[in-house]
Amino acid sequence: MQPNNSLVTRRYDLDWLRVITIITVFFFHTGRFFDEGGWHVKNAVRYQGFTDFTDLLIVWIMPIMFVISGAAVYYGFRKGQVGKFLKDKTLRLLVPVVVGMFTHSILQIYFDATTNGRFEGSFWAFVPHYFEGVFPFGGNFSVTSVHLWYLEVLFIFCLLFLPIFIWWKGSGQKFCLAVGNFLAKPGALYLLALPTMILVTILDPSNIGMKETGGWSVIVYIFFFLPGYIFIPNEAVQTRLMKQRWISIVLALFFSFAWLLQEDHPYGSTGYMIDSILISLASWSCIFALLGIVRRYLTFSNPFLSYANEAVLPFYILHQPVILSVGFLVAGWAIPAIGKYFFMLISAFIVIMVIYEFLVRRFNVMRFLFGMKIRSKEKTA
Question: pLDDT at position 178, please?
């Protein structure tokens, strides 16, 4: 049964999962420095092991973030409070993106341009060139604030599907409940993989407007975002996810490694279709496994969760520019890759937390710029 908004208690399991996912994104982006794919800053030597590591994380990281975001919309949207909803999403999502376009994005694009041979010179010499053209289409200005594309896409989704949210909280409640109850039946949850399979198969990620972001086409994320609104708040589904968590873990491992072992196939080939099916099943299996685990074991709060849950968004905003800065510094060091990796992890984490704790968290102006709620004078004191 789908809960009544007015009676819902906080879903600490989703808070834990959000924190775990953002920390995993931090590990993922640090690994991108060493893998064989293109990125803003790269180590001189690339490694297949890091490529496999980042490829396996691509399977589920961004999909589950959009699933959690869909659930957050369910719990945050109130019938008759459209204005409040839009204000909240503007402050929390759009403000950090716009701020990022004119601050840390310049630094990240400078690293990208320098690493990839598009610019030679100092950072300050690059700043005027930042406004030439659009990144990554041959120019430099990042209309997505680089890694903050997720916030921008999420904001667009909230606007685009607002009429559906209004209907779902009104006369469409019975529809949501019926769909959720159907998905709670054994095996029915895997029907959610069908739209993903179809879209990944037919969408060429090299096309403009369908460029891969986080390993997936932006259009595919719709079919993680909207289902998250319907099935995560449904108690029958949550019970099903807990009961099948071990099956989901086994399927997640099987489909993920089966996809990883497939060679890359050209778009439109039979092999590409098989790849699409495997990664879709792997992604949803990972999502179901993680949701079942946190629902079973992480339904509590503690001081760490309270602190980390507030820090999640600023941490996400800060993590990539800091990682790139450290990577740019250590790129030429003659030490083993694993040593560089752990140095980057530890030093970047420390820098991020110092910036957050002493420059962001304590000041309302900075909290506003980072999409955080403004503190009252009493709480600040």
Answer: 93
CB atoms closer than 10 angstroms to residue 254? 14
- What's the length of the chain? 381
CA distance 218 to 315: 23
Query: Where in the chain are the domains?
Result: 5-29+49-299, 30-48+301-381
User: What's the pLDDT tens digit per position in 228-240?
Assistant: 999 999 999 999 9
333 token code pair: 């060091």
Which residue would you say has higher pLDDT here, 266 or 83? 83
Read off the pLDDT of each residue in 237-262 and give the average, rounded to a whole number: 95
Cα(289)–Cα(113) distance, integer angstroms: 39
- Cβ proximity of 166 and 83 under 8 Å: no
Helix ranges, the chain (H)? 12-31, 48-58, 61-76, 82-89, 95-101, 104-115, 123-126, 149-160, 162-168, 173-183, 193-202, 218-231, 235-243, 245-261, 270-297, 303-330, 337-355, 364-369, 377-380
| Residue 251 identity (one-letter amino acid) | L
Helix (H) or strand (E) holding 6: none
pTM of the entire structure? 0.93
Nearest to 218, CA basis, from 156, 281, 306, 289: 156
Residue 225 has pLDDT above 70, yes or no: yes
The tokens for 338 are 């694993």
CA dist 62 → 149, 214, 217, 250 (Å): 11, 6, 11, 21
53 in helix, strand or coil? helix
Sign of CA dihedral 375, 378, 379, 381: positive
